[in-house]
Amino acid sequence: MSHKSGFVNIVGSPNVGKSTLMNRLVGEKLSIVTSKAQTTRHRILGIVNDENYQIVFSDTPGVVNVAYKLHENMMDYVNASLKDADILLFITDTKENDMNHSETLEKIQKMKVPVICLINKIDLTDQARVEERMAFWQEKLPNAMVFPISALHDFNVEKVWQTILDLVPESPAYYDKEEISDRPMRFFVSEIIREKIFLHTEKEVPYSCQVEIEEYLEEPNLTRIRALIIVERDSQKGILIGKGGEMLKRIGREARLEIEKFIDQKVFMETFVKVDKDWRSTENKLKKYGY
Fold first, then answer.
1. In this predicted structure, what is the pLDDT of residue 147?
2. Residues 192/262, Cβ–Cβ less than 8 Å
3. Which segments of the chain are extended strands (E)?
């Protein structure tokens, strides 16, 4: 039997459920998920292997209009994913009336590879709205296949998966069959911590945070982690630490429990907060933090 391999890239506006869909398709929580927009900052690969295929899913940051140098770098990931896709999953939802970034939509309309348009969160509306959205996007993307889905409740995701398998080209595997991502464990640990910051802080604070794993030591029965949370302002540092250190303890405790599940081992973790002024707007600092 022939072997299939391909890059299936997921693109859409912030907060339409891209990361939830990615995790559902991969069967692992690789992308962090919160209700706040712009949670994803990097391009994250999730690799699904079988004897007869290797599907490389790619979750990208939500498409945004640039306000910071960081946003420019995030949009670079989006544009790269439009160029190297074998199949594009364009995800919208029942609340979004149109894509917030016309330039990206124009690129999607001109793509030569198969485009699958997914209208997510159909569990939050009625049938008339779903049908109206399907007709709207079929007109906008006449060459695309349009599916209504609920990534959260796994509705119609199996049908999408089967469509992907039918469309993916014949090719040898791109990655080792044992791999589930191209990212190291330190990256996923930092993302889990960042997710908890998004869940427990408000306004500008979560968007101003970057998490660096300074130490990751695997011992026979314990993994030791030292995490540094970078913020832009002293006031943000104060909010993140909280009264009597309670906010930082809560974030650290919840992150540690999830990391233990992810690596299947006990974790000892220390978290610290440091101010690095305007890191989101400085090219050298963005490079230092991996953007």
1. 97
2. yes
3. 4-12, 44-50, 53-59, 87-93, 115-120, 145-148, 210-218, 223-231, 267-275
SS3 content of the chain, % helix, strand, coil (to 5): 40, 25, 35
Residue 277: its pLDDT value, please? 92
End-to-end CA distance of the chain: 40
Which amino acid belongs to residue 140? K
Residues 108 and 91 sit within 8 Å (Cβ to Cβ): no
Residues 271, 256: Cα–Cα separation, whole Å:
10
**Contact between residue 211 and residue 231 where contact means Cβ atoms under 8 Å apart:** no
Distances (CA, A) of 255 to 194, 271, 280, 285: 9, 10, 24, 25
How many other CB atoms are there within 10 angstroms of residue 288's CB atom? 14
Rounded distance between C-alpha atoms, residue 247 and residue 229, angstroms: 13
Q: What is the mean pLDDT of each run of 10 residues along the chain (291 residues)?
A: 89 84 82 48 79 89 61 68 90 90 88 95 95 96 96 94 95 87 85 90 87 94 96 94 95 95 93 92 82 76
In the prediction, which pLDDT does 116 show? 97
Which domains does the chain carry?
4-167 (3.40.50.300), 185-288 (3.30.300.20)
Q: In the prediction, which pLDDT does 70 show?
A: 62
Residue 66 is predicted with a pLDDT of: 55
The answer to whether the beta carbons of residues 203 and 248 sit under 8 Å apart is no
pLDDT of residue 73: 64
Q: How far apart are CA 32 and CA 149, in angstroms?
A: 20
**Amino acid (one-letter) located at 276:** D
